[in-house]
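Sequence, please.
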């Protein structure tokens, strides 16, 4: 089913169609769209959020926020057993950076500190790999993406499980023995009386009791308790444990409303229903053969070899590995994940770009990146003798002259600048505030300058005020005066363009030149 999509900003002109066989392109962040309703009984979900109809009841209203990537739409109809899925591509604002530059931001962040990429926005980006950090929505996304493949694999295993013969030995009368082996013959030879009896030697002096006529024979019994089934059963337990953990976290999740982030609360009910259904299906499968017949206490490497030789087992095991994997480390088409809003991606990239520029500019320094330091989200620190350089990301400066771990505070309310660049030589210290603004509009740049003034006037480190307070933007064509050296020197505030990695060199030149040492 194809569904027409109209752009509100172009006089309701037809943009394209939701088509299950083709991704809809040319949608932009922070715009408005109308999607035609094919049936009044239909429901359309945009990343698990139910879309509302307009007053006419003929269109669903969709307004993507500040995000970029691939979105999943699902259409539910009463006569369909499962929803129809559509893919829509949302592009970052062209007047700010455009898609190609935005993808470079993502790549650079993932290479340096991948956890800054992840978020809760509806758009998905091609991200994969593994690392040590744990994220609720990263793990949920993996479970959601690979659950279908994993469940179908488990069902296929239940229908065609691997069966191995367990070899045992039994004492059995001759007339009931179906097979003998070398051990049987050897034990028979070692018992002359029994051997003579079987040969019907009438001269044998001692008659055998009935129970002494038994042969030691091999016995083979089909069994589901084998290494392959044990490995998949243990993995099933882990996937179900993860499902229940995510379900508990989503039920207890406290959502804060933000004007610049997509409402998460609208998406929670459907995600909770998915996890409930997943838990129920996994529980039902765990009670079926072969999983109910295995002894999971038996461990060993044999399970991996057995699994790799069977297509159903191998596919299921690999899907389970993808579900249980932690972190991410690269951009790849192997899977997709929720990311932060575009403005947050720009903030993170500015930190990464400046951090890498510092390491390149001062190679004689010993650099280290501190994750989750006290009073900040990240901190890059470099030392060279009595010289010290620190770049703090999202530093919390407490209110009313209460210094944080590094001595910074606000003389008024609590402040949280995107970056604080501190350069010290011995006891002599200076710092500069850098605040990222993902905008290219002259009006919004002027409005954003208020943060530069606030940080300049309110932040302190001991008795030291910021030497400069600068906002960083991807483009600035209409108010270029804010970027001049004269403006910076005169007012101690200004605006700098940071759009690509090469811009960081000139920014550091200007910043370091402003320092007194």
């Amino acid at each position: 089913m194809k569904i027409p999509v109209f752009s509100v900003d172009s006089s309701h002109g037809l943009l394209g169609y939701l088509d299950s066989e083709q991704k809809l392109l040319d949608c932009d962040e922070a715009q408005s769209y109308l999607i035609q309703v094919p049936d009044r009984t239909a429901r359309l979900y945009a990343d698990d959020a139910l879309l509302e109809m307009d007053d006419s009841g003929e269109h669903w209203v969709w307004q993507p926020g500040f995000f970029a990537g691939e979105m999943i739409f699902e259409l539910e109809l009463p006569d369909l057993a499962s929803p129809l899925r559509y893919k829509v591509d949302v592009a970052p604002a062209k007047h700010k950076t455009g898609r190609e530059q935005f993808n470079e931001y993502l790549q650079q962040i993932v290479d340096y500190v991948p956890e800054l990429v992840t978020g809760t926005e509806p758009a998905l980006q091609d991200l994969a790999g593994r690392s040590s950090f744990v994220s609720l929505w990263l793990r949920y996304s993996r479970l959601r993406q690979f659950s279908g493949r994993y469940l179908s694999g488990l069902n296929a295993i239940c229908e065609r499980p691997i069966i191995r013969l367990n070899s045992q030995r039994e004492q059995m009368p001759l007339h009931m023995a179906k097979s003998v082996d070398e051990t049987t013959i050897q034990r028979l030879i070692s018992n002359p009386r029994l051997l003579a009896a079987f040969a019907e030697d009438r001269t044998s002096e001692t008659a055998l009791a009935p129970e002494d006529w038994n042969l030691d024979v091999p016995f083979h019994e089909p069994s589901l308790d084998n290494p392959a089934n044990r490995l998949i059963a243990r993995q099933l337990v882990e996937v179900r444990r993860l499902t229940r953990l995510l379900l508990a976290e989503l039920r207890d999740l406290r959502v804060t409303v933000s004007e610049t982030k997509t409402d998460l609360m609208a998406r929670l009910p459907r995600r909770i229903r998915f996890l409930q259904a997943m838990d129920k299906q996994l529980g039902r499968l765990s009670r079926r053969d072969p999983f109910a017949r295995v002894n999971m206490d038996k461990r060993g490497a044999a399970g991996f070899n057995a699994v790799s030789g069977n297509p159903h087992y191998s596919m299921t095991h690999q899907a389970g590995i993808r579900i249980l994997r932690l972190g991410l480390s690269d951009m790849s088409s192997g899977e997709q994940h929720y990311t932060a809003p575009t403005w947050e991606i720009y903030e993170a990239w500015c930190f990464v770009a400046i951090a890498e520029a510092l390491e390149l500019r001062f190679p004689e320094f010993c650099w280290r990146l501190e994750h989750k330091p006290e009073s900040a989200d990240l901190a890059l620190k470099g030392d060279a003798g009595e010289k010290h350089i620190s770049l703090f990301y999202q530093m919390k400066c407490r209110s009313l002259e209460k210094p944080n771990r590094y001595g910074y505070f606000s003389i008024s309310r609590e402040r949280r600048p995107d970056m604080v660049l501190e350069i010290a030589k011995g006891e002599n210290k200076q710092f500069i505030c850098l605040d990222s603004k993902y905008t290219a509009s002259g009006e919004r740049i002027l409005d954003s300058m208020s943060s530069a003034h606030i940080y300049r006037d309110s932040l302190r480190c001991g008795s030291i005020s910021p030497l400069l307070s600068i906002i960083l933007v991807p483009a600035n064509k209409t108010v270029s005066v804010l970027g001049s050296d004269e403006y910076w020197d005169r007012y101690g505030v200004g605006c700098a363009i940071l759009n690509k990695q090469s811009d960081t060199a000139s920014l550091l030149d200007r910043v370091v030149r402003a320092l007194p040492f």
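The first strand starts at residue 3 and ends at 7.
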